Amino acid sequence: MNVTLFVLISSSSYWFIKWRPLLISALKEISDSDEMSIVNERARLVHYEKIKRIKWIILIFYGMNVINAIFVHLPHRADVLNDSAMIPCYGMGPLTSSPKREICSTLLCLQEISSMCVVLNYQALLLLLIAQTANLYNLLSDEIMTFNNFDSQMGFINQEVKTKLPILIRRHAMLLSIIGKLKALYSVPIGINFGINAVCMLLFFYLPLQEWFQFMPILAYCFLVFFLYCFLCQRMTNAAEGFERAVYACGWENFELKQKKAVYVMLRQAQKPVELLAADIIPVNIATFAAILQAMFKFVTVVKV
């Protein structure tokens, strides 16, 4: 656990210093696209419901980590007499008596809480960005499909297209830019996180049976983070594919020639696959989640037998 936390903190700190301008740019584009998506009362209601779901996901993520911290991580890491304590408070002398033991435990606890906040906020930000990008794709699909509701009023639909289509094209371009920045920001960290979580889950099954309950929150944390990455990235991929279908089914055959050409270009862009890659190699989706769990099960079964 010490190595895991150290690697995550080191990678997230280096990542934040190096990629901070790119992250700020991505957050700004998401904010701008989010404001542009709330065009009417119906869009605002749909947007509110989707944001509420994201809040629940983030709250569940934080809740699982708080449980892990209270029952497993902090009791072991902040105990100065435990071998797994992070720092034995050098220079304070023997820690078997009060108040040195309490002071050292407090310092260790504060250090551990600070480290966990860095790691958890780093991971929660990634989950938030992926989930919100998927939501923006869904809202964009709903918006472009409204063009298909005016087939009987040719003049009206052409006017609607001339007004709204440039805005939709801009929003789509912003989403493509956001996805490119997410790939640049999180490809390597996701790969590191996948590897660490896989190793932790494998090591868990080598523990004696009587120690399983004690370390079950750690397994739940690794599994939850692994699943959320794959689930939300799959949602983003599905939303992008849904947008592609929406562009094709938006009633473009009723548009004027200039708007038809614009829709054709947008359709060509929408046909490009949208997915995040762990370490620029492994696609992050539900298929990867199932394949890795299957491989882990086979490995543990063969080795333990």
From TrEMBL:
GO molecular-function terms, A-Z: odorant binding; olfactory receptor activity
Pfam families documented for this protein: 7tm_6 (PF02949)
Origin species: Leucinodes orbonalis
Name of this protein: Odorant receptor
PANTHER family membership: ODORANT RECEPTOR (PTHR21137), ODORANT RECEPTOR 19A-RELATED (PTHR21137:SF35)
GO biological process, one term: signal transduction
Membrane topology field: Multi-pass membrane protein
Membrane-spanning parts: 54-74, 120-140, 184-206, 212-232, 276-297
Principal location class: membrane
InterPro entries membership: 7tm6_olfct_rcpt (IPR004117)
Compartments it resides in: Cell membrane
Keywords associated with the record: Cell membrane, Membrane, Olfaction, Receptor, Sensory transduction, Transducer, Transmembrane, Transmembrane helix
GO cellular component, one term: plasma membrane
